[in-house]
Amino acid sequence: MSHDEDLPQTPEQLAAFMERLTFDAPPAPADEATLLDALPPAGSAVMVVRSLRLPVELDEAVAAAAAATEVPKTTWIRQAIEMALAVQAEDDQPISRAEALRALTLLRPARHGTA
């Protein structure tokens, strides 16, 4: 983390700091095209990066759950958050046990371990 004493404090220090700055050359046209092709398509959902701290045991459990469902950990965490938000949604409509059982019978079994 930066400390105030690391920052220029006077106009002279600022001028010296600015003179030491260097800039990379802009990418060549071919490289620029490659960089632009790597961008998500226009209209794609914007993803926000979040940093969070997890106890080691919880991180290991998330890793195991993600591996079991063959998705990256970030995808598993995002899906878990989406499910939690859906459960808490104000417009949530409870369903009957019979409807839930019917829906569950349509799901394919989860893969647990090797058979």
From TrEMBL:
Organism, per UniProt?
Paractinoplanes bogorensis
**Name by which UniProt lists this protein:** Ribbon-helix-helix protein CopG domain-containing protein
